[in-house]
Amino acid sequence: MSSLPSLDSSTATHQQTEELARHVAQGLNRSPKTLSSMYFYDDEGSRLFQQIMALPEYYPTRTEYQLLSTHSTAIADALRAADDTPFYLIELGAGDGLKTKILLRYLLTAGIDFSYVPVDISPAAIEGLEASLRVELPNLRVEPVITDYVSALQLMATKPGRKAVLFLGSNIGNFFPDERLDFLRQLAQPLSPDDRLLIGFDLQKDPRLIRAAYDDAQGVTAAFNLNLLTRLNRELGAEFDLAHWRHYTDYDPLAGVVRSFLVSTRAQTVPIAALDASFDFAAWEIIHTENSYKFTATQIQNLAKEAGFQVSNFFTDAQEYFADVILTPTT
């Protein structure tokens, strides 16, 4: 296994703290106040999300896992090059690789010639994934890239052979509609008509089922959301008193979106030392932390067309809760 050089850990941590501070300064000066869900995932947030994925209410992870297990042969055949020439399997935001390992194992067992390219901005995430792959899949060729998604695809575009790009989970649903279209167009730009893009989409279904997935009975999701404030206290010297904040979420079936919030239960002023500033909150004022859009097959078809793709394969589970969709660039 080979690994690209990464930033010194202290330098990377300093840069990440500066980026967080800028984001918080901008987000808490908006109306309504907003913080991005991307900052949920410190060490504790990642631990809590692992618990969320195991909850009975949280269907997305286990449904996509089952989907990939059921359709691994067909999905792999759709992603690999038709002439069996070597190709690159590029994953955007690989995480712990739990679901991806289903495809990796199949491709290795079938003797297919490919290299796995996990992409993440976090050196720690890449290092953790590499360590697990060395143990579980020692014969796998891994070429990790530590950068943002678009830069990684531009880099990979210079290499010969097919690029099969994975964007698993329901991460595409966290984008606002305009941002989502923009993001897919940026992904399309460095890809050729011979390349493929597989994206996971959470499908529209019973609104009660969707809502419960983001507000479980055990309160793990609430702890996950509130941990964002704990992170700001630790990393930015903020003084959020968690006793006076609540997690709230709801699903709007008209817009097809789950919206999550942190709610101030009283009028309060919160100093943030790293910003040398304080922020006022009215009683019951919210901080918007996450959107999670759900899709129909028609919406996916239309989105693909607008972004410069066409749907070549549409895989779903028996209950049609989730879809892994393979897109082909049209130009």
From TrEMBL:
Tell me the keywords, alphabetical order.
Methyltransferase, Transferase
Q: Which residues form the Histidine-specific methyltransferase SAM-dependent domain?
A: 21-327
Look up the domain of life of the source: Bacteria
InterPro entries the UniProt entry points to: EgtD (IPR035094), EgtD_Methyltrsf_superfamily (IPR051128), MeTrfase_dom (IPR019257), MeTrfase_EgtD-like (IPR017804), SAM-dependent_MTases_sf (IPR029063)
GO terms for biological process?
methylation
Tell me which SUPFAM superfamilies the record gives.
S-adenosyl-L-methionine-dependent methyltransferases
Q: Name one Pfam family in it.
A: Methyltransf_33
Q: What is this protein called?
A: L-histidine N(Alpha)-methyltransferase
Origin organism of this chain? Hymenobacter crusticola
